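User: Modeling request: complex.
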Amino acid sequence: MGLPDFGKYAFYVWTSYGIAAFVMIINLVLPMLKRKEILKTLNRKLRREQSKS
Amino acid sequence: MNNTGLFTAFLTILKRDLTLAYRTRSEVVNPLLFFIIVISLFPLAVSPDPNILRKLAPGVIWVAALLATLLSLDSLFRSDFDDGALDQLLLSVHPTPVLVLAKVLAHWMVTGIPLLLLSPLLAVLLHLPTDAIGVLLATLALGSPVLSLVGAIGVALTVGLRRGGVLLSLLILPLYIPVLIFAANAVGNAAAGLIITGQLYFLAALLVLSLTLAPVAAAAALRISLR
Amino acid sequence: MWLWFHKLGSPKYFYTLAGKLIPWFGWITLLLVLAGLYGGLILAPTDYQQGESYRIIYIHVPAAWMSLFIYIVMAICGAIGLIWKMKMADIIASSSAPIGAAFTFLALVTGSLWGKPMWGTWWTWDARLTSELILLFLYLGFMGLQSAIVDRRTAANACAVLALVGVVNIPIIHYSVEWWNTLHQGSTVMRMDKPAMDTRMLIPLLLMWLSSQFYYGTVLMMRARNEVLDRERDTGWVKELAMEGK
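Assistant: Request completed. Predicted assembly structure:
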């Protein structure tokens, strides 16, 4: 089962789906990275405070 | 002091703002000069051909009026915010929306009415047909108060920010679009000899809507900004 | 019900609940997307007027619907945040904005990619495209205002007022089709009697729409969780979470 053939519209259809997939995935990945980053910085800050006291 | 009537308070603020505007004339005149200069740029940039200018005129005049209003809006609450008069306004016993309305009315009287008076002159410069000039005045009379009222919300939201100017245009210009569409469309149709009552009714409806809702929203926004 | 509502308002409860729900929402989104894509790209017949190009609607229409829906959600949450001072409502409103802007952007881009083969031009100043563009400006203004105000509570309240003011524009956007009546075709799905579309075309569209709702839910919870973590960073439970490694 290959990809369906959309004839002369193939470019427009696939570009639409490609851009949509890209935007959707970016929107999923960014919050994941953000969460990791928040926890990491917080972790580092807390460790610093602990080692000081 | 507290037992002054609401109407007296309204008039006092109106009078005070008008006096202040009179004392700082340049701030009032600058947006008007901007209005004239922007419009005189179009024949230079596009073409001095009367046929082209006639077609562009309604849109150009309205866009310029919109931008001139936007420029003038900053002065609506800025100086009062800087000297603390705005805090006093919010502490007043009278309902804030009414007092905000007084300030907006003063703002419209010093920017909207001069725009209205200047526009026939600029319409002639852009070769707008004489029949359409009356309609242009009507749309400005109905539309420019809406610009001041809706603009007041945006200024109230951004008054506490150091550089709110660019942000203000981002917030306010999208909200101006309905006014722009119907006003420019009415003038264009009038120039083409079509009926324009629908557009004028719509502008009037927008005016009534913003007259009732915008002061409330602006008052709420001021309370948030000044907290 | 009210107890549950108040519990949801507590950040810690929300954080754990959302953490459990996110995988579910994610998988449901994926399943719905796959089903919708299969139905839309492979099963659905070719449109006799527009040829294969109509398949773009499976992205365009859900994105356009979501762009409106999310703005309305933001306005409602803004109102709740203003009236009942509920923190979670503020968080949901502010986390929704970037997602709504993304959907609006997608609706515009796919509309333009559809317009090129259909109308022979990338962009027409037709009513619905234009109002979608205005909606994008509204979203950007909202996000601009939010990032400009440093204090979180002030930012949330100011944005709530802005969203409520902007919502006045939503009916104008929706009825613009009837007002300006340009070359954009009328709605084909939202008819009371019977949809004008073939069911084989309609079902994938509804699937895609449902999947975008779940997608919105997933990303919203992820963003809201981050926001909660950031706001509550000085509380005990967040510190514990950060110390658990990771």
